[in-house]
Amino acid sequence: MTTAQTSAAEGTQYALGRTRQEYERLRRQAQQWEGATERVLDRVGLPLGARCLDAGCGPGETMRQLAQRVGPRGRVVGIDVDETLGGLAVDRLQRDGHQQCSFVAHDLVEGGPILEGPFDLVYARLLLFHLPSRVEVLARLWDAVAPGGYLVVQDYDMSAVGAAPPLAGADRVGELIIRSFGAAGCEIRVGSLLPRLFIEAGVGVPDGTDVSGRLERLADASLMLEAVLRSLLPLAVSRQIVTEPDAESLLVELRREAVADPEHPVLWPLLMGAWRRKA
After folding, report:
1. 273 close to 212: Cβ distance less than 8 angstroms
2. Tens digits of per-residue pLDDT, 189-206?
3. Each residue of 96-129: pLDDT tens digit?
């Protein structure tokens, strides 16, 4: 698929589209956050043989982390509205020897029980950011947690994104990305809202929280900024946020800055985490 948004019939929105390039960008992004996820998983503990759900599993990189922790006697189920991406993910995982991984196409917004539960760990990363019914989805995820198990959520707060000190091209690209996400109905500060959302969903006050950040050189960060903007561009153009020529001019400016000052620091979105154990 090359459309910029998930169709209304699928019950949710994904502003970045479903192209091969976007799938690869998602995989690179997931790999960048592996350390942050490992730290949170260390906090909650995950024994061998545990049953895990990765909600909004995307390219399956977190499923790989979970499979390595629970071992061959454990179980890792990924769910995602994107059946193509989920199928590719589990095929890759099983080829790599992770036979305990499986995938089920499921739309968390449309509702219905999550199959194959309950789970010792229900995990979601960068899921609520894209969804309009965040409280309802959190409540459904909590319902899938077994007694004694954990709900763990990590999501973005994009409010701090930018170059330090400011750079015209990099910061304008960042602003355009944020505007485009906003136009798609995304909540750019959902990570910081997680404790409140937990309470509103009936999960309760989180047992713990975590904040992770990435400060990268512009030479590297510019590649991800350009990849995100290119995935968002069909939506941004359709909403008249930017024209394609203007977006291309911005990207030229971004590349010029990266060549002129490759070591210039750029702050990624903050990845906020929250978790709670079910009694």
Report:
1. yes
2. 999 999 999 999 999 999
3. 999 999 999 999 988 778 888 899 999 999 999 9
Domain residue spans in the chain?
Answer: 8-157+187-215+270-277
Fold entry, domain 8-157+187-215+270-277: Rossmann fold (3.40.50)
Tallying the residues shown for the chain, one arrives at: 279
Q: Distance between CA 198 and CA 153 in Å, rounded?
A: 10
What's the CA gap between 230 and 234, in Å, rounded? Answer: 8
Identify the band that residue 5 occupies on the pLDDT scale cut at 50, 70 and 90: very low
Q: Would you call 224 helix, strand, or coil by DSSP?
A: helix
Two tokens, residue 111:
């509702």
| Tokens 């910061």 -> residue | 171
CB contact set of 273 (below 8 Å; sequence gap of 6+): 36, 40, 152, 153, 154, 194, 209, 210, 211, 212
